[in-house]
Structures are given as structure tokens and as C-alpha cells.
Amino acid sequence: MADIVPAPQRSIADIPGVKQVGLLAGVAAAVAAAIWLVIWSQGQNYTVLYGQLSERESGQVMDALTAAGIEFKLNPSGAVSVPESKVQEARIRLAGQGLPQSDAMGIEMIQKESALGSSSMMESARYQSVLETELARTIVKVQGVQSARVHLALPKPSVFLRDSRKATASVMLQLYPGRRLEPGQVAAIVHLVASSVPELGASDVTLVDQAGTLLNSPDENAEQAASTRQFAQTRKLEASYQQRIVDLLEPMVGAGRVRATVTADMDFTVTEQTHENYDPQKIAVRSEQTSNEQRRGGDGAEGIPGALSNQPPGTSGAPAIPGAATPGNPGAAGGAAGATQTTAAGSGPSSSAQRSTRNFEVDRTLSYVKQPVGVLKRLNVGVALDDWQKVDADGKVTTAPMSDADIKRFSQLVRESIGLKDDRGDQLNVINQAFKSAAPLGPVDGLPLWETPWITQLAKQIVGAALVLVVAFLVLRPLMKSLTKPALLRSAGGDAGDMAGDRLSISGQGGTPIKLAPSFEQQIAAARTLVGQDPRRAAQVVKEWVAADG
């Protein structure tokens, strides 16, 4: 009886060399893939922190991350990646150090060796670029400014005064989200730029933010700039009064239980007055001039030279008037002449004159008054107070309205604290009204379960383990089975291709199969041995073969 039995198992040494190397390479690749999947499932996800950084900026960022103990990866494009859980921490730490900075070259451009034969135009352009970059770096140091760009228009100097032009500057600011510059900071940046460039005035500097808002007005006298300043001044005054009222009443009423609103009516009219006053009661002598004159005449003739003056005129033809002037007595009527007196003394006539001039100064007051801009004309104040809150012994909170005496007391306190004046028309209204509490905030919905970080990490590990099992069962297991698959004996006399997987055995006495060696020579030797031991049985087997073949 012939039975087909499995032959002895083959080892790796029985496989040809090329196939053996291929199988080993496949096993190594499968193991490497499994190890990579395990590492990938256990590793962290990396997110790009900053992309497309220059070499200098990448070096600064990596140094800062190394000092902070944060892992990072540098992509070939220059982007720096950090673990997903460390992104916000890394950005905050880098922002605290002012990184990343602009890659524009400032003073470094001058420190670099310039090419031989540079023209004056190139040197001027390089100097202007350096000046703009250094100014931008300085402006970035101002709190609230994220980045800045400076453009300078520097005219070429001219020896002719009519051809000279002034320098101008434009500054573009990128502010941090939610930040705004105070007026003092705007003025500081404008004067910083103006002081850094020769022949540049503060009125020739334009400051703009990323939203296109003009932060300063080159013409300080422009109507728009004046209106903006007036509005800001009014709001500042109102906010000051409001804060003063709240700070005064909150300690007595309770935090958050006082609301105050102040409306200020301001007068921004520019007024100039000149006054000139005279006081007639106050007189002072400013100057005085006195003149005295005396003359005395002799016996000689007087008058127009000639024959008539040598002869005294006769008196026969003229009536004699007592006290009247005669040729012999010309000063007889001089006593009534006021300031001029003429008397006759001695042998001839004489005269004297006295003149006095006095100038008086009346008291005068000249005053020039310029009224201040932004005069407070009237205040309207409204104050709302919440009810009293009382806590009993059990800790229960109860509310009670304020009495009229309390409201009157608070009104007088507010009136005196902010200086309200009745003659100015100021109005104050204090009311007591229970405040409505805000609705309690509902619970904040958390992230969905599939978006939580630990779920993502767990799913990643499960996927990695599943891929490892797939590689083990679909790659490694079939590969190992193919290496340990038993070889079947070939059937003697059969076709080599058809009998490759068969093995022939002939049962001996007692039904025990006798296994044949896998090689053909060993099979022949075994057949001869069987024929020698049991010729009859061998003949019967051959007879059956012949009958089967026909």
C-alpha cells in the first residue's frame, strides 16, 4: 500500500541564496515598519511656529527655544516647528524677547565691505536705507508697536536758497491686536523721527497705523485736528469726574453698585481782550518849564533909526489921558498886562516877563487778557445708586431702598466733591434704583470628545497598534509559514512538475509506512531494499501499476 506522507521540514539554509536574501530583507522591512508605527503613535504632533524665516531669524528663534527647553524642528524651508501643545508657550516666550525681528539690515550694511567703485548715488541710497532701518528698530521698542517701516524723503542739498526743499518722513506702524497708542506716544514717535533727521520738522512727519488711520496731523492748526483734540479733552474731563464720583461712593454703597455719567459743556472759543483805564483822581506832574525875562531902557533914543527918532514928539496936538501911555512914558499901561509888567525906575524904562509851563499825567491802566481755551461752561451729572444690601445672621442677603435723607446726603457729597456751581447752571440728579443682576452665565461647553487632545493621542496609538498587527499577520506570518512549509516527496515514475509536491511510501508488515528519502537516488535504493525483502509484494505492486497504465 502506498501512502503520501509529509517529508522532513526545510530550513532557511535549504533555500537558494537570492531568495534567502529577499526574505531577510522583507522581514527587516516589516520589522522596521512596525517599529516606525510604534514610534509614530507614541510621538507628538509638530506644528509650524513661524514659517519662511531667514537664517539669522531662525538662529535667534532656535537659541531662544533651546534656552526655554522647548523641543523644535527646523524644516528645509526655514520654518520652525514645535510640539502642538507648546505652540502658545513658545510664541509668548519669543514675543517677550522681541522675536522674530525684521531681517532688514541696518548698521550691518555699512559694516559690510562695499564694492570698489561705488557711486555717490549708491552710497547715499545705502545711508538712507540704514537710517530708515535703524529708526524702524527704535520705534518697535515702543510699547504696543509690533513692527514699523520708515520712509524718508531727503532732498538733494542745493546752494541756491530758492531751490532748497525740506525733508519729509512717513512712518507705517503695525500695532498688536487690541492695542492703541496714546497721544503722548504718538507725539514721542513723531519727535523721535524729526530729531533723528537733519532739517526735518515735526510737522513734516506723517504717522499711519495698519488700518490706514492718520495718528497725527502735520498741520496742528487744521480744523480736523483741532476738533479731535477738543473732543479728546472733553471726554477726558468727563471720565475724570465720573471716576471721582465712583471712587467716592463705592466704599459706602458697594463695589459695582454705583453708576455715574457726566456731560461737560466746554467752550473752546479763543478770546483776546485789551483794556485801557484812566483815573482822573490820580494826577502826577510829568514835566514843568519856567522862563524869566527882564529888560531896562536908557536915555538914548529908541525906535526906527532916522530923523524922527532923534526928536521927541510934541504933545500939543494930543489930549492928555491920565494913566495912558505917552512917548515919554511907554510903560504907564503895562500893569494890566498879566504876565508882563513894565515899570519906570531911575532914569529910563524897564520890563520883565515870566512864563511857566506844566504838563500833568493822568493815571492809566492797560491790560491784555487772553482767555484759556476749553473753559467749562456747565456740568450735567447723573448718579444711579443701587439698593442697600444687608446680610442677616443666617447669611441671607436682603435689599432695602435708600431713604430720602441718604439720597440728599449723597447728593451734597457729590456736589462738593466735583465742585458744582449753581450760578454756572450745573445740574445734579441722584436716584436710587435697584440694579438688575445679570443673568448667570451657563456652563461653558467644552470641546467635543473627538477634539480633545487625549482622544487624538489615544486614537493615534490605536491606529499604530492596528497597523502593527496588520503588518504582523499579513506580512510576517505568511513569510514565516513559507519558510517552514514541509516538502512532499515526489512520486516515482511520475512527471517531475506534477510530482513535486508528492512523497511516496510503501507500507511494510504491520501497516507501518516506510518513509522514502526525498532524493531520487535514495528512493531507488529504498525500492531495491523493499524488493529484496519482499519480492512477492514488489511484484504485486508492479503488476498493479501495469494494470493501471493499461
Descriptive account of the structure:
This protein is an alpha+beta fold. Helices cover 36% and strands 24% of the residues. The protein has 12 helices and 17 strands. It has helices spanning 17-42, 55-68, 87-96, 107-111, 120-140, 183-196, 223-253, 307-310, 404-418, 453-483, 520-533, 535-549; strands at residues 2-3, 46-50, 73-74, 80-83, 145-153, 168-175, 205-209, 258-267, 272-296, 340-345, 348-370, 375-385, 388-391, 397-400, 427-432, 505-507, 513-515. The chain has a 3-stranded antiparallel sheet, with no helix packed on it. A 3-stranded antiparallel sheet has the order 2-4-3, with helices on one face. Strands 5-6-7 form a 3-stranded mixed sheet. α1 (17-42) runs antiparallel to α10. The chain is elongated and about 225 Å long. The model is unreliable at 1-9, 323-346 and 487-511 (pLDDT under 50).
